[in-house]
Amino acid sequence: MRRRQAVVGLLGALAAGLMAGCGSGAQQMPADPTGELGAFPVTLTHGQGTVTIPAAPQRVVVLGLADTQIATALGATIVGATINPSSPDGAWPGVSPQVRPELRTLDSITPNLEAIAGLRPDLILMTTAQPSFSAAYAEISAIAPTVSYRTELLQDPGEELVRIIGHALGRDDEAQQLIDRSSATLAEFRTRHPELDGARYAFGQYVQGGTYLVVSPGSPVTALFGDIGLELPAPIAGLPVQQAATTQVAAENLGVLDSADIVFLGVGADSDRTAFLSQPLVAASAPARAGRLHFLTFDQAGLLFQPNPANTEAVLGLLEPLMSGVGTR
């Protein structure tokens, strides 16, 4: 995998594909609690076009991480999803209830049009799929009604993704309920941890010898940390965005980490941890010296990079044990 692909595919956890499953092989989620779905047909506009969904979807294919998380949380009947290449069982983090293994069969990087069509979907969700899926939108949307990203790949707020997916499924009320639960959970977390208010963080990934940090103040992950009181330090927020809210930081500029109270960094192996810590500016940084430089797996980093109301509890469950001592400068 090329370096730039790794940053998007692993840090962003963009991967997605399809899962084989037909007829009784579909994953039926819990029934709509209201007993009825929204009125159809539904027409909505997304970043790659306008789509009309003629009837309540009964066979949904999910091609992105957030698509999988949100669709399952809203009770969609999933007949196909992608394999997580960094997980031993192919499951994606933050998905509840988890998609059954036999439905996780398709490559998450390269679209397999024949396999998608073979699933006979009546709705395809690819709001957070790899850029290769966006590039194949015309071909994919010819198979079934397809919903792509709202405004910009990986930069749509999680709440917007829940609303657009909920509308496509005819589950607008459930979507709003999910958003409300998430907001309440974040507010309760912040109330429980007043020491985090004003603390500064850095988040990114170290891959193939390169350090990539999220630097965009408008990124969904920046909004997530802001919801629990943390701030993106000015020296990091001032770096230019290169791709998907991130930038590569040269070794001689890693002194910017000293502006953070806590650092979260995705790595692929223990050797990457050793290599990153061996850099003088990293070793001398305040977070490293205070024991607040936390290494994450690519799956964990991907979970943070795509926060949305469907994975709020999983994200906070990951972060809370790592926050000890933050705010005691």
What are the defining features of this structure?
329 residues; 5-stranded mixed beta sheet; 12 strands
Explain what you see.
The chain is of the alpha/beta class. The radius of gyration is 20 Å and the shape is globular. Strand 8 (201-207) and strand 9 form a beta hairpin. The strands form three sheets. A five-stranded parallel beta sheet has the order 5-4-3-6-7. It has helices at residues 3-11, 65-73, 113-118, 131-135, 137-141, 158-169, 172-192, 220-227, 234-237, 270-277, 280-283, 286-289, 298-305, 312-319, and strands at 42-46, 49-53, 60-62, 78-82, 104-106, 123-126, 146-148, 201-207, 210-214, 246-249, 262-266, 293-296. Helix 2 packs across helix 6 (158-169) and helix 6 (158-169) runs antiparallel to helix 7. The protein has 14 helices and twelve strands.
Calculate the mean pLDDT score and round it.
88
Helix content: 25-40%
Which structural category fits the helices and strands?
alpha/beta
What is the count of DSSP helices, taking H or I runs of 4+ residues? 14
Q: Describe the strand arrangement of the main beta sheet, using strand numbers.
A: 5-4-3-6-7
> Could you name the ranges where pLDDT drops below 50 across 5 or more consecutive residues?
1-36
Number of strands: 12
Largest sheet properties = 5 strands, parallel
What does the overall shape look like?
Answer: globular
Q: What's the gyration radius in Å?
A: 20 Å
Share of residues in strands = 15-25%
> Helices and strands, in N-to-C order?
HEEEHEEHEHHEHHEEHHEEHHHEHH
Distance between the termini: 40 Å
